[in-house]
Amino acid sequence: MSEIIELNGNRFFLRTWGEPSSPSLLMLHGFPEYSGAWEELGERLKHRFYCVAPDQRGYGQSYSPPEVGAYHMRNLICDLHALIKHLDGPVFVLGHDWGASAAYGLTISHPDLVKKLIIMNGVHPIPFQKVLLEDAQQIIASQYILWLRREGSENVLAENNFARLKAMFTKDMKMNWLNEERFDLYVDAWKDAFGLRGMINWYRATGLYVPKVGEDIKSIPPLDARNMRVTVPHLLIWGMQDTALLPKSYRGIEELSDDFKMLEIDDADHWLHHEKPDQVAQALLEWI
Asked: Is the pTM of this model over 0.85?
């Protein structure tokens, strides 16, 4: 099912699986996906949950302002706050990639709206910023962020039917799940260079410091761990072959969580929800 709703005066597109009378599971996609990325898990979880997957701000058929400032985390959290109110929350929250960042931000600022938090290959800002200051491998793996932040990167990514974006999407990952039919659906969601701008603005708006390879790393004030704790039950599922977010990206997250459980999937990468939907769904159901 799908519907269009208004949140804080802005248009948002939702895909849903399951019955509205079931407990709500809010599913937050990352870059460069869209709400349809949750199809496999939605089908496997709809007997237990009302699965709700928005096209997040800047993506697909949802509100997509061109200004970078519109994508500051406080605005992304406001979208989710309004959506949970619409769902008569609190809700279970599942986030992947940038959706995980939004899920962490929501949970830290509004723990009363989140029953339990599930993160898949996505990072809390404190461990990730720390590894970007200390680890050469992750600095190298994250150089794409600096490229994406450049003005006009969306124009390059949209050329030749999104050839550069598809190459970035699939680099060093197992992509047998991305067949031609599914890729066409992604292209429809990306639309054009203007359609990509909102997506990439998530990278431009973040305060994350990514050093250039070989440069002197500047000192930055530490983030306040006391104000960034995860106080609700928290499950982290990680595909250990991820080449964009290395496993060291989450090192120390258990110290920032009141109630934490970890599941590592050795033979999966960043796109674990596409590669291993049965295993991910079963782990989520057993934990909840």
From this structure: yes
